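User: Can you write out an input/output pair for a complex, sequences first and structure second?

Assistant: Here is one pair. Inputs:
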Amino acid sequence: MKLFTQMTKVALFAASLSFVGTSVAAEPMDLDSLLKTLEEGKSAQSVQNKQREQEFAARQNEQVQMLKNTQAKRNQMLVESERLETQFEENEIKLANLTDTLSKRMGSLKELFGVLQQVAGDSSNKFATSVVSAEIAGRSTFMDELAQKMGSTSKLASIEDIEKVWFELQREMTEQGKVSRFNTDVIVQGGEKAQQEVVRVGAFNLISNGKYLEFNPVTNTLSELNRQPVARFTATADELQNTKNGVVQFALDPTGGSILGLLVQAPDTQERVHQGGTVGYVILGVGVIALLISFERFFSLMVMGGKIRRQLKDDVARDDNPLGRVMKVKDQFPDVAHDTLELKLSEAILREMPKVTRNLTLIKIISVVAPLLGLLGTVTGMINTFQAITLFGTGDPKLMAGGISQALVTTVLGLVVAIPTVFLYTLLNTRAKNILLTIQEQSAGIIAQRSEKGA
Amino acid sequence: MVLLIDSINAIRDFLDTGGQVLLVIGVLIFAMWLLILERFIYFFKGFRSYKQNVKAQWKNRAERNSWNAEQIRQAMISRAGMRLNTNLALINVMVALCPLLGLLGTVTGMIEVFDVMAITGTGSARSMASGVSKATIPTMAGMVGALSGVFASTFLQRRAKREVELLEDNMVLDH
C-alpha cells in the first residue's frame, strides 16, 4: 500500500508540473479554475488507481505459481550437487590409490628418470657450446625438450628417448676423437658469408683456409677470428687442411676456443701506442728526433773517419778532414819553435772539436729524458686511475684499465726510445772520441815523424 | 738429431713464455759475449805480438830524447791504447742495457696482465699467468746478462789500463 501512496504522490506532482507547463504556454488562469481542475484530476486518478489495484490482485495468483516452480527447480539442483560431491570424493580416493600404485610400480625407475633429466639438462648445455654442434646441429633442442618433459610429473620417457640420449652422448664422445671435414657457411672477414670446407679437430678447434674459426652457440654460426695467432700456428692449420692422410703437427687450443677468444680482445701494437696518450706521442716524437740526429751523425762521422784514415797513410796534408787541417798548421808555421808549434796545434784542435762532437750531447740528453717522460706518463696515468676510483670505486677493474694501460704504455715507450738512444750515443761517442784522440795525440806524433824523415 | 730438435723446441717454448723482449735480451747477451770473447782472445793473443813490435820499434830508434821522440812515443802509446779499448765502451753499454731491457719486459708483461684483467676481471688467475711469466722471465734474463757481463767488462777495462801503463813504463826516454 505504501508503494501505492507513493505512486499517487508522484502522479500529483506530475500533474502540477504539467499544469505549470501549460500555465506558461497558455493564457494565465485564475486560482478558482485551478482548484477546479485539481479536483477533477483527483477523481479521475482515484478511478485509475482502483483499476490498477484490481489488476494486481488478479496477478497475485500467477506469482505464487511462479514461486512454486522455482522452488522445485532449486530442490532438484541440490540433489544433483550432493550426488556430484560424493562422486568427487570417490574419485579423489581412487586417484590417490592409483598414484600410490604408480609410485609403487615405478620403484627404482623413478631414480632413473631423475638421472635422465639431469643428464639431458647437462648435455644440452654441453652440446650447445661444443664445436661439434657446428657440424651436427639440433642436438641440444632434443635434449632440452627431454629435460622439460622429465621435469613435468605426468610424462614418462619412452625407450626411444632413453636410447637417443645414450646415442647422442656416444656420438659426442666419438666425434671428440675425430678430425672431420665438412662444408658449411662461414662468415669471413668483412661480414660476408661463404661456403667453405671446414676442418674440425675433435671438440677443440675449427679451421678453414688456414684460419682459426669461432663457433657462436647462440646464433649457431661460424666466423673467422678477426685476429689470428702468429704465423707458425696458422701454418700448422694450413698444413692440416691440405693434408689428405698421415700425421701432421697442429697447434691445438685445449680450452676449446677461450684462449683464441682472448687473442681477439688483446689490442695490437698500433692500438697500444695510442693508449699512451699525449705523453706517449711526445716520447715518440723525441725518439724520432734522436734517431734522425743519430743517422746524420753516424754518416758524417763515418765519412770523416774514412778521410782521416786516408790522411794517416798520406804524407801531404789535405784540407777535407780535421787531421789534415791540424797538420797544415806545421806547414803554415815552418820555422817556429816546438813550444809555439804545440800551442798552435792545440789551438787548431780546439777549432775542430765542435765539428766532431756536434749534437752528441743532444742525443745523450734525449736518452736521459725519454725514461723521465715515461715516468711522467706513468704518473698522469695513475692520476686518471685514481680519478676513476674516486668516481666509481674499486669494484670494477675495467674502469681503471684505461689509466693503468696509459701508465704502463708510456713507461714502455720511454724505455723503447731510451734503449736504442743510449746504444747509438755510445757508438757515436766512441767514434767521435777516437777521432779526437787521433787528432790530439797523433797529429804531433805524425808531424814529428815527418820532420825526422825530412831531416 | 732428436736431441737437437728437443733442445730447439725447449728454447722456443722458453722464448714463448718470455715474450718478444726475451728474444731481444737473448740477442743482446749473445752479441755481448761475442765481443767479450773477441777481446779476451785479442788481449792474450793478438796484442802480445803488437806490444813486442812497438817495443822493438822504440828500442831501435837512434835517439830517444828530443821533442820529436817524445811525440812519437805518445802517438805509439795512444795507438796501442785505442787498439786495446776498441768495443770496451760498447760492452759496457750492453751490460747497462740488460737490466733496462728486463724492466721493459716487466712492463710489457704487466700490460698483458692488466689487459686480461680488463677483459675477464680479477677472477681468472690462470689467464693472467702468461702475462706474469712475460713480466718475470725477461727481468731474470736481464739480471743474468748484466751479472755475467759486469765481471768480464771490469776485468777487460782494468787489463787495458794496465797494459797501457806497462807500455809507458817499458818505453823509457833517455836522459
